[in-house]
């Protein structure tokens, strides 16, 4: 597989085209950002940890029947993925109240949500990824009803699989966001799944083990990521 020019540079990853029109290379960088890029730092080992963490999670989801963009690890910081036509809608599943839900509704952090809530956000950094509903998705042509229904179905499957997986590791899966795209017409899970895009708390202490440590200036960000990986059995370089 020949790595060619950079196609896109995001806040924490770079995307490169390859000699295969159906495949891309994702490079996980050490860049760490929050608040739509207003807070940015370099954290040593982060690219490696997130790349290997993502590979582990995507393989678990594939085993559970969730189609993913991930193909294979190429190095400590790179992986080979399918080239998707991305849908600009983020699917968020919340098992406990935290983050923007607490701010939006004024509820207490940590309340368990029964049933878990499913929310939609427009992927638009310049506008702060605004909260949207299904009517917006259909009216603006971001996805069809069938596509959105499949996205919700897969998000709920991911929630069940990963809630159980993290529970066995002594962790609460508080919430997470997913992005989807089309690969030859099929809805496929894209982007990444790492502590950057979910909230994880220790079951006993409620210690935060995710990107909130960076957002809130708690320190020990990578150490927390590595502890989560260790509990799951992820092999780190």
From TrEMBL:
Keywords: ATP-binding, Ligase, Nucleotide-binding, Purine biosynthesis. Its EC number is 6.3.2.6. SUPFAM superfamilies: SAICAR synthase-like. GO terms for biological process: 'de novo' IMP biosynthetic process; cobalamin biosynthetic process. It comes from the Bacteria. It is an enzyme of class 6 (ligase). GO terms for molecular function: ATP binding; phosphoribosylaminoimidazolesuccinocarboxamide synthase activity. Pathway: Purine metabolism; IMP biosynthesis via de novo pathway; 5-amino-1-(5-phospho-D-ribosyl)imidazole-4-carboxamide from 5-amino-1-(5-phospho-D-ribosyl)imidazole-4-carboxylate: step 1/2. CDD domains: SAICAR_synt_PurC. GO terms for cellular component: cytosol. InterPro entries: SAICAR_synt/ADE2_N (IPR028923), SAICAR_synt_PurC (IPR033934), SAICAR_synth (IPR001636), SAICAR_synthetase (IPR050089), SAICAR_synthetase_CS (IPR018236). Residues 7-231 form the SAICAR synthetase/ADE2 N-terminal domain. It catalyses: 5-amino-1-(5-phospho-D-ribosyl)imidazole-4-carboxylate + L-aspartate + ATP = (2S)-2-[5-amino-1-(5-phospho-beta-D-ribosyl)imidazole-4-carboxamido]succinate + ADP + phosphate + 2 H(+). PROSITE patterns: SAICAR_SYNTHETASE_2. Belongs to the SAICAR synthetase family. This is Phosphoribosylaminoimidazole-succinocarboxamide synthase. It comes from Halopseudomonas yangmingensis. The gene is purC.
